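Deliverable D2.4 — example input (structure tokens):
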């Protein structure tokens, strides 16, 4: 049984898996007669290769019962996938490296501060969204395909490894 420790989500720690999406500390521009700040290009989106198109969705995620036994992860080989929580609720982000299958030895568990989202890079192995304590809504920017199974691989860890997330 593998029991990874939670880490705070930071851009540096998450860099090998994608990007942390949050309001930058600097930059941006004032718009709408001075009532709003606009921050562009906060994530590198990869959604439209090979005939795909952007798909904006809302996910309503039930809170997880911890500890959570994790035996498999998913990835989207042709696109990024962005999750942004609505309502300022922290959530868990579980990712791993691996080529043909997720490598449980590389698994990391991050906890967000409730104001952060994540943009998984194409091909990043990840667990579906894990809400903490209460139902959490997410704005999700992903890819729509003519055949949805073309862009979602879901595989168990090799050797029937089990990861316990708490």
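Example output (designed residues):
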């Amino acid at each position: 049984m593998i029991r990874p420790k939670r880490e705070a989500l930071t851009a540096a720690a998450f860099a090998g898996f994608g990007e942390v999406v949050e309001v930058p500390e600097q930059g941006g521009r004032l718009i709408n007669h001075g009532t709003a700040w606009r921050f562009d290009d906060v994530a590198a989106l990869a959604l439209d290769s090979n005939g795909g198109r952007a798909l904006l969705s809302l996910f309503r995620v039930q809170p997880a019962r911890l500890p959570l036994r994790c035996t498999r992860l998913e990835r989207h080989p042709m696109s990024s996938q962005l999750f942004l929580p609505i309502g300022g609720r922290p959530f868990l982000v579980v990712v791993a490296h691996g080529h043909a299958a997720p490598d449980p030895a590389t698994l990391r568990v991050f906890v967000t501060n409730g104001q952060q989202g994540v943009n998984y890079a194409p091909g990043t192995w990840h667990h579906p969204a894990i809400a903490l304590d209460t139902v959490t809504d997410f704005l999700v920017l992903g890819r729509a395909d003519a055949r949805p199974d073309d862009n979602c691989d879901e595989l168990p860890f090799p050797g029937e490894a089990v990861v316990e997330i708490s």
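Helices lie at 11-14.
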